[in-house]
Amino acid sequence: MNSATRVLESRVFAAPISKVWALVRKADFAFWTSAVASATVENGAAGEVGSTRKITFKDGAVQRYQIVELSDVAFSVTYELIESTPAVATSAAIHTVRLFKVTHDNSTLVQWESDFSSAGDNTTSVVEDSRLKKKEALADLAKALGK
């Protein structure tokens, strides 16, 4: 049986949106130091719709993402998983990172949302793995911001 699942994690950072966007915009996850070993831009330039990223994780997994939407006005980047070694338990995965300015104190709300389509009984494990990784990545973003 196929199912669709959405995972959303968020965090507020005591930093202006421009500073947070500078780390997130390239979608190279350079801030995610606890999990990412290396990241390279392939088939295009950083910050270019259609370009791809090859992310090598410290656990040995290698994934390629394609930037499908990028907005400097809306402070959002959307990317799609196009290849994974080892294979992941989903048939499709689209991720969006959105930033929102909190006007009260010039902080930034970061929302990281993923939509998955999966087959079989893997939905629960996919959701929990995604949730854990997002929390870890957002904690590393906080460290990169010095917060």
TrEMBL record:
CDD domains: PYR_PYL_RCAR_like. It holds the Pfam family Polyketide_cyc2. InterPro entries: Polyketide_cyclase/dehydratase (IPR019587), START-like_dom_sf (IPR023393). This is Bet v1-like protein. It comes from Geranomyces variabilis.
